[in-house]
Write a structure and sequence with these properties.
100 residues; mainly alpha
Length: 100
């Protein structure tokens, strides 16, 4: 059985970054992003970059915190720890996007 810490992590991870999820979850996340982008109109690049940076920064924080938690499920902690380098790399790549 998963603890509250584990279920909070899983829920937050699923909602925090649509760019790091499986295809079905990515579609949901991108649909939400699409609504923001449509609202932005001509500011598409700014909205997209801000969303990418924000979601990846939140994911890094979430996965880092969970990876260091003593209350975390060992298997989930291993998954979070293993995924952290990829998410950090994606954040660093997003930081290199041109200024808009």
């Amino acid at each position: 059985m998963l603890s509250k810490t584990d279920t909070r992590f899983l829920t937050s991870a699923a909602l925090s970054n649509p760019f790091e999820l499986d295809a079905s979850q990515m579609i949901i996340g991108l649909t939400k992003l699409s609504a923001k982008v449509k609202a932005a109109g001509k500011n598409f690049d700014q909205v997209y970059k801000a969303e990418i940076l924000s979601s990846h920064a939140q994911a890094v924080k979430l996965f880092s915190t969970y990876s260091g938690s003593r209350r975390a499920n060992a298997t989930l902690r291993t998954v979070a720890t293993g995924g952290l380098p990829t998410i950090k790399a994606h954040l660093n790549e997003a930081r290199t996007l041109p200024k808009v």
